[in-house]
Structure formats: structure tokens, C-alpha cells
Amino acid sequence: MAQHRSVPCPATSVAMQTGAIFAGLAVGAVNAHMAGMQAARQAREERNSNILAHQVHEASMAAHEWADLARAQAIEIERLKAENARLTKVAKQNFELAQRLSTKKAA
Q1: Rounded CA gap, 27 and 19, in Å?
Q2: pTM greater than the 0.85 cutoff
Q3: How would DSSP label each residue in 40-80?
Q4: ∠ CA 85-87-93 to the nearest 5 degrees?
Q5: Higher per-residue pLDDT: 56 or 6
């Protein structure tokens, strides 16, 4: 028959304390891992946000440059249209003058 001790077994007490210590360490390790994962996720999101902000800024700057170029080209087109109209008028006058002179020569 097994004997009953009046004092608890010291090995049980040490095993319980060691188990509690390891459980505390495991909880701490899991919490540290989760905090590290959250920090990494946050850093990744912040980096992606910064990249997107930079891309938006670059696209905006490019759009402004294209708009400036389009404005300059529209002004140039209007200038060329006016020059074309002036040259057309001069060419017509020269043609008419040539026609009159050739008519006078023929007569």
C-alpha cells in the first residue's frame, strides 16, 4: 500500500513553479512576436503609403508639365494660324497683282 506523505512532494512544487515560469515566458514570447508582427505590418503599410504619396506627387507634377506644354502648343498653333492667314492674304494679293500685270502685258 502507498504511504501518504504529510508534506507535499518538493519535486511537484519545483515542477509547478518551472511550468509557471515557462508558461509566463511563452506568453511573453508570443506577445513579443505579435508586437513584432504588428510593427512590421505597420512599417510596411507606412512604406507603401509613402510610396503611393510619392507616385501621386510625381503624377501630379507630370500632369502639370503636360498641361503647360499643351498651353504652349495651343498658343503656338494660334500664332501659326494667324501667320498662315497673313501669308494666304499676301499670296492672294501677289497672285492678283501677277494676273493684272499679265493682262496689261497681253493687251
Answers
A1: 12
A2: no
A3: HHHHHHHHHHHHHHHHHHHHHHHHHHHHHHHHHHHHHHHHH
A4: 105
A5: 56
